[in-house]
Amino acid sequence: MLRSVESSIEFEKFRRNWSENELNETLFTKAFETQHNAFLNADP
Description:
With 44 residues, the protein is mostly helical. It is built from one helix and no strands. It has one domain.
């Protein structure tokens, strides 16, 4: 019983870290694309 609780907690931690990384990557990509587009559009 204790074993399964332990692995559930580990899994939850893993899942949470993964979602946070996923979110950060998405935000980073969006920011990068925005910068990139602004740079392209600034070209006279």
